[in-house]
Structure formats: structure tokens, C-alpha cells
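Hi everyone, sorry if this is the wrong subforum. Our group has a chain we'd like a structural model of before ordering constructs, and none of us has done structure prediction before. Sequence below.
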Amino acid sequence: MTTPSPLKLSLVFCAVSVFSLPALAESQARIVRLSDVQGSVQIDKNTGLGFENAFVNLPITQGVHLKTGATGRAEVEFEDGSSMRVTPNTTVEFSKLGLTDGQRISEVNLVEGMTYVDWLGKDGFSLKFSREKVSLDRAAHFRVDTSTEVANVAVFKGDVDVQGPNGSLAVAKKKTATFDAANDDKSKIENKIAEAPLDSWDKEAVSYHDEYAKNNASSPYGYGQSDLNYYGAYTNVPGYGMMWQPYFTGVGWDPFMNGAWGWYPGFGYMFASSYPWGWMPYRYGTWMFVPGFGWGWQPGGWGSWVSTPVYRPTTLVHVTPLVAPTAGNKTVFVGKASTSVPTMASRYTVNAGSAGMGIPRGSLGNLNHLNHQVAKTGFAEVHPAPQFGASSPRGASRPSYGEPGAGRSSMASPPMGPGSAPASRPSGGSPSSHR
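Answer:
Right subforum, don't worry. Here is the predicted structure as C-alpha cells:
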């Protein structure tokens, strides 16, 4: 057998490199997070099945459509922690999620309805609506609504440029631009922002992310960090290093007992945890079982996004089988989620297997109610905590626990690492005064 010469190998390598350049320069393999789902929300993943029920932590890929009903609300979180909130009766399309010269590019089409965007400015972003387009290369917080007659852009923070048939229009902070679709998209700017019913929901969500994203670990990504700091805590486990664990982990709990497999063209089946905090621990790092501590997540593995979570169980520890479906394109529910409604609404209950699920986003106004529910499970001694509402999540007290191991077998008390106490997750509803 003839061995190829170094010159031939170099030529082959160069040819492969040249043909690989377009793929490297314009990769479409980005995946962002459906970080909150309330009410009627549907997703079209380009599977050929059309719209189906959406649930928290489903991956969002290029070409995905998201649609809310009359009672539906949703939040999408991007890698750097930027977020977009979708109000009732709204349809959005994620027309591009790609990389160009190492920079993430996100293009979203607001087909109809209203959305809020809180962009942190680390990556490029554009939002199309009507015949207009907002393009960002800096931080901004704004609201856009569109219909067949009129479209409005209201800027809360920063400033945005809107491009359309009539050129470019700069919209500064605390101003609103209106585009008249019936009159060749002619625009005007008002020096005020008309209040919308869900401004309070958006404002509370922004405050939530600002507050709980402060206590980040060493992750280079922002998405999912605020939920980790809200629903659990980090602790230094001897022999293992820093590990994160959700609050209220009960006897027999493992990280894979609630979830679903969602199929995506070009990606195959990807696991989605039904826990409200269940994004980053299932995309990076490793789950491990530690005697006397229970299941915990160790951060790391930032160089590779995984569709199937990585875990290291022992032969003596129960773990829900984590086996991806081998055929088909339908969503497959596993564990306790397989007996719940398609939207995984069971995550809003509190039971011995509901690690961190007893404090869902905006569903509880005070911890006394939560403590009463947790106390009935028998796996933790819980004492009353001060009341506080969704409008004042800062500075609240963490729920008290009994002695380590009380009613929890070998599971230690939840680690009280960095981060504030679990407070009410924003639910919005009533209008509030503007920024």
C-alpha cells in the first residue's frame, strides 16, 4: 500500500479547509431557549406536524414558529441572557439563528401581535414587523406591536433605528414611533409611551433576570442562569468541587424523572426537562450523585452543547432511564411528565419529586402557601416565612428548613449558596406605571 506524501496530504487538507469555510462562516446550528410558558402556547418545529403544544425548556431552532392564544404568554431567552416576551394572540418566526464571523446573529419576524425585547447588546439582533425592521448592535429595551393597519415601536431604554420603505427612523428612549400601513407606512414620533396591559409582566420579568443573573457561576452563557439562582443554590462539595442543587429535592428524586423528547429536523431528538430551571444543567456540565448530598449538577463542558444530558449515576442509585426515541417525529413524554397534560402543567405542583418546582414563575404570591404545601409532603420540616408579593421580589427571606436529613433519608438540606431567596416569579396581569 502506497503512503500518501506530505505534499498530497497538505493539498487534501487545504481543499477540505476551503470547502469548509462557508459552513464555518455561516453556521445555523444555534439553539435558544423557550424559557417560560403560560396559558395557550404552540410551537411549529418544522416537523411536518404543524403547531403542537409548547412547554418550558423546548429548544428554539432556526425556522421555528411560536404562536400564543388568547390566554398565552411566552418568553424566549438567548445565549447572552437577552430575552423576548410574546403576548397573547401573537405569532413570531425565528427566521435566522446563525453565526457570522464568530458573532451570533438573531433575526425574528413578528408576524402579528405584540412582543417585548430586552436586548443586552452582546450580539446582533433584528426584528421584522409589517414592512419595517429594527436592527440592533447595542443594548435596548423596547415593545413592538403590529397589525394590518398600524405598527408601533415604544422604546423603554436605549435607542433603536427602524428601517422601512421610507428610510431610517431613529427612536429614542421614552418615545413611540407609529407606522401607518394604510398610508404607505408613513411614520410619526410621540414623546411618550402609551401604557399596555402587560407592561407590568415585562417589567417584572426584566427585574427578575437582572436580580438573579448577578450570582452567576463560571458559565460563559447567560441563559438559564437567573433560574438556577432562583430555584436552587451552589455549594462546595468535598471531593467534587462546586455543585448546584435545586431546592426541595426529596427522597427518590433524580433529574430525569420529568421531561420529554422533542424532535427537530437536522438535530433529531433533544431532551427537554419540565423543571422551570431545567435548561443549563441539561445542556452543559454533568449530573452526579453524591452520597449524603443527592443529585447535583457540576458546571462545565461549555465547548459542546448536548441534546442528551450527561450524568454519572452509581449502581446503587435510582435514575429514570434516559433513552431517546429511535424513530418518528412526535414529542415523547417520559417519567412523571408522561402522565401529565401536554404542556407539562404538573410542574406547578409541589410533591416529593418536585425539586424546585414549587416556586413556579409568578404562580405563588407568598411563601406561607408554598411552605404549607411542602410540609404536607413529609420530606422537609418547613417553618413559616414572611409574606411578599410579585411586585417586591427583592430582599425576601429564604424558606427555613429543619435539621439536615429531617424526613429526607440520606439527602442533605438544600445547599444555601449564593443567591437571594426564592421570590415570586413575575406573572404580570395588571397594568403598572411605566419605566
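For your construct planning: The first helix runs from residue 6 to 25. The helical segments are 6-25, 199-212, 225-231, 280-283, 367-375.
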